[in-house]
Write a structure and sequence with these properties.
Blueprint (H helix, E strand, L loop, with lengths): L1 E8 L2 E7 L1 H11 L3 H18 L9 E8 L5 E6 L4 E6 L15 H5 L2 E9 L2 E8 L6 H12 L3 E9 L5 E11 L5 H12 L4 H6 L4 H6 L6 E10 L5 H9 L3 H8 L3 E5 L6 E5 H10 L1
Helix pairs in contact: 1-2
The chain binds zinc ion (ZN).
């Protein structure tokens, strides 16, 4: 189980995330190689931090979709706003070249766009921004700046061990509320610049509060949320997807003895016999 903690420090809203278990579960499900693990893990952690803002709002679901031209192709991360997160990655094993110690996340993601969908009862709100670097943290910060006009700083990190498993993952996010002073903005920028690697801090044993302490020691905790990788697919949601297929695709399905649908977020397989498919299409 991971955790997000939200705190306030003057006009600064400060949040920390520990997401090691969530990111390791994503790696286990998708079999990602190290740079893909880091990319997906940063996206999941960034979404976990961002979604905290909408915790008790009318938002039912948030989707962040990184559509880019790098070898990874696409990363989609989603939350149902109940502390459950899931991810999809088109190519979990992108080719890469190590340049120094840092995993080349920007290289495997490439250039493209970040689409963010907020699902509410009355409809879906979509925003799109170009990717700044493909390093994920900067990209989400730019999205927040463009869509909410909020200057903020993100630090997102994933550390993998020699077997490619996730050793530590976490993040920090700080943003300024209206009325923040120039001094507060400057101090925040400086502290993020001197932060170092957030995944190494998590690996060294820092918990949520200790992570917050790296930015400020005079904050007040506002609230917290447990986060985990847990898919919310069901036979009903797969049936809905089948029913929404075009007529030609429906016809193709009816030619099959049985149809297997694999959830792209968790790998669970749902099997339908031809009779079940026929019945389903008759009802709709
Ligand atoms: Zn699923």
């Amino acid at each position: 189980m991971g955790r997000i903690v939200r705190a306030k420090w003057g006009k600064v809203v400060l949040m920390s995330a520990i997401t090691t278990d969530m990111v390791e579960e994503a790696r286990r499900i998708h079999g990602t190689n190290p740079p893909a693990t880091a990319a997906v893990g940063r996206a999941l952690t960034g979404l976990a931090l961002y979604s905290m803002v909408f915790k008790e709002s009318a938002v039912r679901k948030i989707v962040m979709q990184f559509m880019a031209d790098g070898p990874i192709g696409e990363i989609t991360v989603e939350t149902n706003m109940k502390g459950h997160f899931r991810a999809y990655v088109r190519n979990p094993n992108p080719e890469y070249e190590l340049k120094g110690e840092k995993l080349p996340v920007g290289d495997v993601v490439g250039t493209g766009n970040l689409y963010v969908y907020k699902h509410l009862e009355e409809g879906i709100y979509q925003s799109v921004v170009p990717l700044i670097s493909g390093e994920i943290a900067e990209d989400i910060a730019y999205f927040v700046y463009k869509s909410e006009q909020i200057p903020s700083a993100f630090a997102l990190g994933v550390l993998v061990d020699e077997y490619g498993r996730v050793k530590a993952a976490g993040g920090l996010w700080a943003y300024l509320e209206p009325g923040a002073t120039e001094d507060e903005i400057k101090m925040l920028e400086e502290r993020f610049q001197h932060l170092g690697s957030v995944s190494k801090l998590v690996d060294a044993g820092l918990d949520n509060l200790a992570l917050l302490n790296t930015i400020s020691r005079s904050y007040t905790v506002v609230d917290e949320m447990e986060v985990e990788y847990r898919c919310w697919c069901s036979r009903e949601s797969v049936e809905e997807a089948l029913v929404s297929l075009a007529a030609s695709e429906r016809e193709n399905l009816l030619k099959e003895e049985k149809v297997e649908v694999r959830c792209r977020y968790c790998g669970k397989t749902y099997t339908f016999t031809r009779d079940e498919i026929r019945q389903l299409f008759l009802e709709t």
